[in-house]
Design a protein that fits this description.
Number of helices: 9
Shape: globular
Radius of gyration: 16 Å
Strand content: under 5%
Order of helices and strands: HHHHHHHHH
């Protein structure tokens, strides 16, 4: 009976993480459900389950709990970029832009196999710089995101918008 209950819990967690829940916001700048699976699958096996649980908390809007979980993951495996990336998103959501930039910079120093995921780190960096009013830095990071993943509509849209803002000055 316990095994059946555990399988059901795992299935529910997978559905939440993979974007099959209506509670997960669809925001252009954040990872799409397909990418969420890529994030979870990119995590080292030793921390994959806890990382999936952290993402579930994040997408449920339980940012404080997700932050605690991700901080614990960094202590367990400081070489996994995904924990830094999601902590950066949480910091950005809380308006802690300097801290978010630091987290994203840490993520850029670590290996990321999927170009779309690496591009999202630079997209998030660009957003932080844009929010601080540093449009030239934002443009540079949006350009990096486009160079890594040319199919990124969010990076391209943000790049074009910031380019217009710079031209208007």
């Amino acid at each position: 009976m316990k095994l059946k209950y555990a399988k059901i819990q795992l299935l529910v967690l997978c559905l939440i993480v993979c974007g099959c829940s209506s509670n997960i916001p669809v925001i252009k700048a954040y990872p799409r459900p397909v990418e969420n699976r890529l994030y979870v699958n990119s995590a080292p096996p030793a921390i994959r389950a806890q990382f999936a649980a952290s993402l579930s908390l994040y997408f449920q809007g339980k940012l404080d709990s997700a932050s605690i979980s991700l901080t614990s993951l960094i202590a367990q495996d400081p070489n996994y970029w995904g924990s830094y990336y999601y902590l950066g998103l949480i910091n950005k959501d809380h308006g802690l832009l300097e801290t978010a930039i630091g987290r994203f910079r840490e993520a850029t120093k670590l290996p990321v196999k999927e170009p779309a995921l690496r591009s999202n780190i630079y997209l998030a960096l660009g957003q932080c710089w844009e929010l601080t009013g540093e449009f030239a830095d934002a443009k540079m990071h949006y350009r990096a995101a486009i160079n890594i993943a040319p199919e990124s509509a969010a990076a391209r849209d943000n790049y074009n918008r910031v380019s217009q803002l710079i031209a208007q000055k």
